[in-house]
Write a structure and sequence with these properties.
The complex is a heterodimer of chains A (426) and B (81). Chain A has a domain at 226-425: Chloramphenicol Acetyltransferase (2-Layer Sandwich), CATH 3.30.559. Chain A is 25% helix and 23% strand. Chain A has nine helices and 20 strands. By secondary structure, chain B is mainly alpha-helical. Chain B is 52% helix and 0% strand. Chain B is built from three helices and no strands. Chain B starts with a helix and ends with a helix. The chains are: A alpha+beta (426), B mainly alpha (81). Chain A binds chain B through residues 198-201, 244, 247-249, 251-253, 255, 257-259, 298, 300-301, 324-325, 328, 352-354, and chain B through 18-20, 33-34, 37, 39-41, 44, 47-48, 50-51, 57-61.
């Protein structure tokens, strides 16, 4: 079970796309795992023959648990090592009770990867004592779903709350849930009562779980990363005119969005100022020669996901636009791959038309920089000592002070400005 | 095609782009971006869907005429005339 995020402890295998005897190549999608970002396609990172599937569909496994045994060329069968499945950034896993797990299934064991189960903060209402006995998996799921363990009837030894109990509770309609539990509903004032979730715009995506994933990643970012912020308002008139001329007479399917220019300019600039592109892990910055450009995609109904467009520095504008279309559609309605949710090296967040003038974004760990593009705005602007009306955009950089300083950050913004002023060369 | 047909087609394509929107709750004066929270990719997808369905290719300069369902139906009726 690969880690699809710093906070992921376990994941639910939803579907196998291979069977024993199948030959797979580097990058093939072999399975689908349910996470807070919806279903994620799991790629394998070595050429091999599938020897044995160890995990069954519907099973929840701790991060690091083997999913399958593979045979690599000239090799005896062995468990897929964790590092052959990509592992780094993203969000945690969530297996919000799809599909339902049969009752009486053995409890998953503690994660065997040296990732200790996180300490539970007692969430009991004031006045009650220690948390009730519960399995680690049940605690994790209950915490992620915002459920209080006191309010769930346990079916395990000594009344311990098991994962299946939490799942049953989550599946039960709210009215029924109130009747099933031996415990009482958590008082409203505790803030634990889960509000009715907004319409999930994407099937299988749990909005509360995604909110938890964002909370975990952003809290970690603000706790660990000493952010500094720069902003620069740049003249976007040339790019605006160029884009309007390019799109004129085009059918809608062939039109380009300004976001493609922003992403292209950022990817090129990041190759010139490398201390903003890469990962900071284990006290050390690892720059990346490739720019895997994360694109913050807002989900309808709330939340956002920032999958990465791989090797963005190699994509021309048309290819970038095609990649953005594909990425936005799959983020909102389809499936992302694990490399896309874990391998971003720098992220771009764009407000779009009619939004705020500027946005000061929070870095996605383990990345070290995020660019924010505000809404393009017409402003009075000085060109050759004359005030004229120009379309402008305020670009912000949030960057990690452990890795870079403001002077280099200003260089990155200046490079983006230079590129956007000559859109025909992008 | 009657105005009602065009309105229904517009709402169907709108809710295909944004499946969480209940067409019954969409008002003629709802602003697609401010009220219904469509972003630039949604608008582009909507315009592409309208092109496929109605054969009307709305140029970028005319996007402002699609600001609300009411305006959009008015615009599309005129374009189909």
């Amino acid at each position: 079970m690969p880690s699809l995020g710093a906070d992921m402890e376990e994941g639910k295998l939803v579907e196998w796309l291979v069977k024993p005897g199948d030959t797979v190549a580097h990058g093939d999608v072999v399975a689908v795992v349910e996470t807070q970002k919806g279903a994620i396609e799991i790629e394998i990172f070595e050429a091999a023959v599938i020897a044995e599937l160890l995990a069954s569909e519907g099973e929840t496994l701790p991060v690091g648990a083997p999913l399958a045994r593979v045979r690599t060329p000239g090799d005896m069968p062995r468990a897929v090592p964790e590092d052959s499945l990509d592992d780094s950034l993203g969000g945690g896993a969530e297996e919000q009770a799809v599909p339902p797990k049969p009752a009486g299934q053995p409890e998953p064991v503690e994660p065997a990867t040296g990732r200790p189960a996180r300490k539970e903060k007692p969430r009991s209402p004031a006045g009650t004592d220690a948390p009730p006995p519960a399995s680690p998996a049940a605690r994790v799921l209950a915490r992620k779903a915002g459920l209080d363990l006191h309010a769930i009837a346990g079916s395990g030894p000594g009344g311990a709350v098991l994962l299946a109990d939490v799942e049953a509770r989550l599946e039960a309609p709210p009215e029924a849930a109130q009747d099933t539990g031996a415990g009482e509903q958590v008082p409203e004032a505790e803030g634990e009562t889960k509000p009715a979730p907004p319409h999930p715009a994407k099937p299988g995506l749990d909005m509360a779980a995604m909110r938890q994933a964002i909370a975990a990643a952003m809290s970690r970012s603000k706790r660990e990363i000493p952010h500094y912020y720069l902003e620069r308002t740049i003249d976007l008139q040339c790019a605006t005119d160029w884009l309007a001329a390019r799109n004129e007479g085009c059918d809608p399917d062939a039109r380009m969005l300004m976001g493609a220019l922003f992403l292209r300019a950022t990817a090129l600039a990041a190759t010139k100022v490398p201390e903003f592109n890469g990962h900071y892990e284990d006290g050390e910055f690892q720059p990346s020669s490739a720019v895997h450009a994360g694109l913050a995609v807002a989900m309808r109904g709330g939340g956002l996901i920032a999958p990465a467009i791989r090797d963005a520095q190699r994509l021309g504008l048309d290819a970038m636009m095609a990649a953005i279309r594909d990425m936005v559609a799959r983020t909102r309605n389809g499936r992302l791959r694990n490399s896309e949710v874990t391998q971003g090296t720098i992220t771009v967040s764009s407000m779009g038309e009619g939004g705020a003038d500027a946005l000061y974004a929070v870095i996605y760990p383990p990345q070290v920089a995020i660019l924010g593009f505000g809404a393009p705005v017409r402003r009075p602007w000085v060109v050759d000592d004359v005030v004229v009306l120009r379309t402008t955009v305020t670009v912000t950089l949030s960057a990690d002070h452990r890795v870079s300083d403001g002077r280099r950050g200003a260089r990155l913004l200046a490079e983006i400005e230079r590129l956007l002023k000559e859109p025909e060369k992008l | 095609m009657t105005d009602a047909d065009i309105r229904r087609a517009f709402l169907e394509e709108l809710t295909a782009v944004a499946p969480d929107i209940d067409p019954a709750t969409v008002g003629d004066d709802d602003h697609l971006q401010d009220d219904l929270e469509l972003d630039s990719m949604d608008i582009l997808n909507l315009v592409a869907a309208l092109h496929k369905r109605l054969g009307v290719s709305v140029p970028e300069a005319d996007y402002r005429h699609l600001a609300t369902p009411g305006h959009a139906v008015h615009y599309l009726v005129a374009a189909l005339d």
